[in-house]
Write a structure and sequence with these properties.
- The protein is 71% helix and 0% strand.
- It has helices at 7-12, 23-46, 54-61, 65-71, 75-99, 107-136, 148-166, 175-185, 188-197, 202-215.
- The protein is built from ten helices and no strands.
- It has two domains: 7-71, Homeodomain-like (Arc Repressor Mutant, subunit A, Orthogonal Bundle), CATH 1.10.10.60; 75-215, Orthogonal Bundle (Tetracycline Repressor, domain 2).
- It is an all-alpha fold.
- The longest helix has 30 residues, at 107-136.
- This is TetR family transcriptional regulator.
């Protein structure tokens, strides 16, 4: 049975050659996926994600529950699939931007801009991202630090901190620990807690993170 526990793996895996004999099956699977994701997106817009069930998605999409569960183990997997393309586009644009060394922009300024963009993305996709994390955290093997999203963000932020040290913008620090801590503070649950429980605006949250990890170091 195929589960999408790691949707990013499917996203970054090699493309498979098309085989005519499988054409109709692939076409049908593609149609099922389109209907499921379209239905889920509509339901998530009209209900809170926590209130939407797999049974409801299957019924509204007009597919059997077996068909749905063969593709998605739980709501978190549906959310992951919905986010695949937008997440990859976001990360790719961020990687291109941060990889460019600008003579008129300091490394720490680039780090600050990176944090702002991450918070913007988390704010826009917070409910979906939070559901994905919560659906996997009860698994003994779950490790946020090994997830492709975390790894890619770590790989693009670390060089900025290293360059800041090399150029004398900041004193020598533990780069790995610093970046891990920055990313841990930006996870959806943290953001939603500060926004929905403590009443922080997106701007206040972003300014606070930058004060701690850009101005503070």
């Amino acid at each position: 049975m195929k589960h999408t526990d790691d949707q990013e793996e499917a996203l970054f895996g090699p493309e498979l050659d098309a085989h005519p004999i499988c054409g109709r099956r692939e076409e049908r699977d593609s149609e099922y996926r389109r209907r499921i994701l379209s239905t889920a997106k509509t339901l998530f817009q009209t209900h809170s994600i926590e209130d939407v069930t797999m049974h409801q998605i299957a019924k509204e999409a007009g597919v059997g529950q077996g068909t749905l569960y063969r593709r998605y183990a739980h709501i978190g997997d549906v959310c992951s699939d919905l986010l695949r393309s937008t997440t990859n586009q976001f990360l790719t644009s961020l990687e291109i931007e941060t990889a460019e060394i600008k003579s008129d922009v300091s490394a720490m300024k680039q780090l600050s801009e990176c944090i702002v963009r991450i918070v913007d993305f988390v704010d826009e996709k917070a409910s979906l991202l939070s559901t994905i994390v919560s659906m996997h955290t009860d698994k003994r093997s779950f490790s946020l630090h090994k997830k492709p999203l975390f790894v890619r963000l770590h790989h693009l932020m670390s060089p900025l901190v290293i360059r800041a040290v090399e150029q004398g913008e900041i004193r020598p620090i533990d780069v790995t620990l610093t970046v891990n801590t920055i990313l841990a503070s930006l996870i959806p649950d943290q953001y939603l807690y500060h926004k929905e429980v403590l009443g922080y605006t997106k701007e206040q949250f972003t300014e606070g993170i930058c004060r701690l990890f850009v101005k503070g170091i």
